[in-house]
Amino acid sequence: MAPDRRPDRHPDGRVVVALDAMGGDRAPGEIVAGAVAAVREVGCDILLVGRAAEIRAELPDGIPDGIHLLDASEVIEMAEEPAGAVRAKRDSSIVRAAEAVRDGRAHAFVGAGNTGATMAASLLRFGRLRGVARPAIAVPLPLALSERKLLLVDGGATTDPEPDWLVQWAKLGRAYATVRYGNPAPSVGLLSNGEEPGKGDDLRKAVFPLLEDSVTGFVGNVEGRDLSRPTADVLVTDGFTGNVALKTLEGGMLAMAGLVFTVLDEPEFADLAGPLRLRLLEAAADFLPDNTGGALLLGVQGICVISHGSSSAAAIVNAVRVAVQCVEADVVAAQQAAVERVPA
Amino acid sequence: MAPDRRPDRHPDGRVVVALDAMGGDRAPGEIVAGAVAAVREVGCDILLVGRAAEIRAELPDGIPDGIHLLDASEVIEMAEEPAGAVRAKRDSSIVRAAEAVRDGRAHAFVGAGNTGATMAASLLRFGRLRGVARPAIAVPLPLALSERKLLLVDGGATTDPEPDWLVQWAKLGRAYATVRYGNPAPSVGLLSNGEEPGKGDDLRKAVFPLLEDSVTGFVGNVEGRDLSRPTADVLVTDGFTGNVALKTLEGGMLAMAGLVFTVLDEPEFADLAGPLRLRLLEAAADFLPDNTGGALLLGVQGICVISHGSSSAAAIVNAVRVAVQCVEADVVAAQQAAVERVPA
Lengths: 344, 344
Known about the structure:
Two copies of one chain form a homodimer.
Chain A: E1 16-20, H1 29-41, E2 45-50, H2 52-57, E3 67-71, H3 82-88, H4 93-102, E4 108-111, H5 115-126, E5 136-142, E6 149-153, H6 163-181, E7 188-191, H7 202-214, E8 218-222, E9 234-236, H8 239-264, H9 270-283, E10 295-298, E11 303-306, H10 313-328, H11 331-340
């Protein structure tokens, strides 16, 4: 990592987060509101990147202390083809925000827009870490009624990986689990179609011995159920399977929650439905996408935190908080060390 | 299909189901109890395959009408490596049950034991359908508060498929959706990491145009969420991804249900917790593994229905019911016609 991007190089010691003001279904309103709240609640500065006039319109009382603006004339839409959009729209908020980190104007990039474009711009502008072939996205998985969190790596950055890329991701994921959750010795599982060592498709069978040989904390194959229970802290998979699993998990939990709430609408349960609904929402709060804090792009020479497409102001605050935590713990250096370290 | 396996060839017109009496965590007790109940409730005959002495011990009042015994001295355990076990244990209940179907002594095979061995024995003893390269397993997916059911194909029979195998599975899945759910025109989705036509890993990108060209009812890419909502009736995927998705779905729904039931234990909700629990269990009954009726092995010249490993007697009755339905609708002929039909 270039020294000018290290947090201790910033003039007044405050962390600066570049935030894509145009990204997400609720941009720019919720994003700008999230920026203002993050300055207050997280205690960092925010560089709002996007169409300055539209951003100013969301701040009728002027630009608050701690908020800075970086004008960018273009917007990459949610449905655009990522790589092409990043190439074509060089003055887009996503590209400019990634460049702000590359150029040392900000310590981290937070975006809720086109996920593929946010990843592609970060990869292209930050560059890869030494020894990392492709990036991966680390998606936090809450567990019901537990403080413990898991990380799924890769949640969708890279499909069709080579076996050794998953080894790199396992190491990066461990480093990040330590930074984000304070876990000094995260365990790693290989997401497969059975627990026995011989299980898996061709990719998994090739990856398993590599993980055994070179990843500390490897516990073997894990299954889809282990996205919902604490078998391993880091679950490694290819970006295709990871994406399918994440959306399957979300869909299944929503379906079950929907079933419960529909039953609570029945007249028989009217007396308790109100308080029970509130209590259930509270107990399930960790699962609301606004509360997960976003996903980190692993394997690149800079910090990029991706929040979900319908992020509210609260989601932005949580994602900014994760980004600042990553800056303060120097998660990039921790990742670089993890892939360069030779296991004992 | 050989004529002697057709249902109309059976002497007295009753369907005979070969049931692996030794298969599953609760065998032989629950399996034998399920057989007795199935004769009464489904109206078929059952050929119980396994160690005759152990089966007889479960029937202290003698062998009821409609129950027949086929002695098999060996048992393939749940954790055994499937292909090796099928080769080595030629007198196992699984191999003998598959042979009973092949030899025309039974119309269908139902097993709750080692899934891999049940599939391997059926594949080896029945043989493949013409035009089918590899089998796939069709797993029923209930939807919350809906009568509509989906089928996931392949739920785990074949990892690392060639692109055209998924096309065959799509056709087989459609034929089966028609038999099992009476759906005259099932839609087909390709499980991918995004809805846009360009999404997917290399396999998905190769399969997509083939499905477009040759599968009626193809609606394009679907996502993990579409395992829990009615976007497509048949979801086609490779057996690795399918297995991960199924277990992820199960884990997520169980986690959410567990959270709800834990909250209901709180003193504040004691008044309604009892009736609400019952009502929730009733509303979610379709999701209980005992109630899905089992999964059908597609692409083979015979009927093999696989029930889950902890099957109760009720699960066995449901699986036998599905098997009989498959016999009566001649699902093997329907599958053969589907893969041989050239689309208009």
